[in-house]
Amino acid sequence: MTSARGGAGLPSRPVAGSTQPSRPIAIVIVTYNSAEVIADCLRALPAALEGAGESRIIVVDNASQDGTADVVALTDNEVKVVHRTGNDGFAAGVNTGFAHADGCDVLVLNADIRLAPGAVKALRAAVQPGVGVVAPKLTEPDGSIQHSLRRTPTVLRTLGEAVLGGRRAGRFGPLGETVTKPAAYERAGFVDWATGAAWLVTRECIEAIGPIEERYLLYSEETEFMLRAGAKGFKTYYEPAARAVHLGGESGTSPRLWSLLVTNKVRLHRERHGKVAAAGMWAASLLNSLPRAARGSATHKAAVKALLTQRAWPAPLSAPAKPSKDAPPYVCFSAQDWWYHNQAHSDFQLMRRVAEHRKVLLVNSIGLRMPTPGKSTQFVRRILRKAGSVAKLVRRPLPDVPGYYVMTPLPLPFYGSERVRALGAKLVRAQVRAVCAVLRMPNPIVVATIPTAWDVVQGFEHRRLVFNRSDRHSAFPEADQSTIAALEDKLLAGSDHVLYVSRQLQGEESGLTQDRAHFLDHGVDLQHFRRRAELPADIASIPGPRIGFFGSLDDYLVDFDLLERLAQEFPEASLVLIGDATLSMERFAKYPNVHWLDFRPYAQIPAYGTGFDVAIMPWLDNDWIKHANPIKMKEYLALGLAVVSTDFPEVHQYPELIRIAQGHDAFVAAVRQTLTDGGLSTVEGRREAVLPASWDSRARQLMDLAEGQR
């Protein structure tokens, strides 16, 4: 994207064609954890700006934690990014954008807006005397009209929507705030106000009206601004020739955001008309929410509670929502053990982030089988480490996340006997109940990742049951596969929601789960998995080029014959293996170019990965891998590594980034080619592909699903 430099030291984009307006236009996009949507918003802008005159793009980031700023930089490095230190609301972000757009008209956009070609030119053409704000026509992704036009909020209109419903009331001006007549969206004209997903504000309007009221944080701030502007002669104009797709936000599904939307409407009425009028709006809003709350709507329940406990102004968004009596705690039955497994596992990543907002008790794995001599590898070690985990009782392992608790119950992992299974379930259930009572975690949302949790949770009081279907555990070779398969089926049937990370597995079980199934992809810790300037001394001393693997070296996952083949085929290269091994590594002792560094802490893994020239995923071809979605795939890509993998379904989500090989010969050839050409894509391109996949966003998705209306 070419540009010339314009005023205030910001990028400008003079466009040839029609006569340019006399002043530049600044596109201000406020972001907060918007990595999943911002790139497409930016990619649509060149065509949208054609013929609109000199322009500049400013992204104001409200302290995102998901790599939003990295996505912006990789999408268009000429965009100015203003980094704010916290998230104190949309209005504060827009005002920051106004300050960085001196002398410009300003087009304010949500990050999930996709402007159509020529949209900005059409918006600017609609500016005329008496117009301070211009709003485009918004549509859903399927092309249907999004009802974005509004009438001035009144008590009567809120009551009308309560009695008739918003869509029906909107057909009648006095009875509905939202304009719902289709014909109204086909003609240009003045409106009271429009939703703030996309709106052009003239420089004259900004200077005359002043900043947006920041105390609302989210919702009603654009209402207040447009109504205030209209009262001073700067009216809002609707221009359907300017079009945009709006993906839509979380307010309809997030109880917290919906309650903020409802209560801010009351606050707006108070500021405009006084406390007496606000009492009427409060009563009308309560009447609107009560029947829906009674029918079980989580969003309207939150609205009722917020109305009954309403404070003068909402709490800052940057502060995590403090768990209240109605905020559900979470109990997660993990498939891993916090104290000795790699803490990169999805259970840990998701729950530690949920714990920033809710109390969380993570129950370490109760196992799939009892380790037995002759059948289980490292039998004695496994028994001892589980005993050590049980001895830790209940702890808070993360000082900066005080709501995160970890316990290891004493299990009886004998799942072949119905009687012993029932006894073991009662034992674990009693222990978890006792801890929940001490921690004051009644009626939790239960997240089960391991199928043996079914016997425990079916007799355990819970608000909702979510099956985090991260693997097909019945494919685990050491387990009693028929017993575990039966438990999986019971958990699939008895769960309120089933979350999948494997599209293959979700498709195979769709007949059982139907609309209870949801795909929730793995995330990646973007801040953690960055390339490091210095390598650890032990890998730095290993001669390159380095063919590397980090992760558990499990005999039911990793193709050790393939690893030995690589050692043979590449004597000039070093094969670096980092991770705990579940079988003897003596077979590699005869290869001087094989370097097994054993287990390394999670904190050090990115530094070791930085030293790889080729990262490998040498999986076995079995049912477990067929339904897997390895987290390390995104971790490799986040580090910008060139990756070669054996073939399995989920790896085909990255065909332009990862070389996929079928068979040992093809794998060796792919590694050889990658050592020569540096792999598919580039370091930057590989990292860019996974920037939207933060664990924070995945945890928010899980919470919205678990706490939303069924």
UniProtKB/TrEMBL annotation:
The keyword Transmembrane does not apply. Residues 1-20 are annotated as: Disordered. Pfam families: Glyco_trans_1_4, Glycos_transf_2. InterPro entries: Glyco_trans_2-like, Nucleotide-diphossugar_trans. One of its GO terms (molecular function) is transferase activity. The keyword Transferase applies. Residues 27-148 form the Glycosyltransferase 2-like domain. This is Glycosyltransferase, GT2 family.
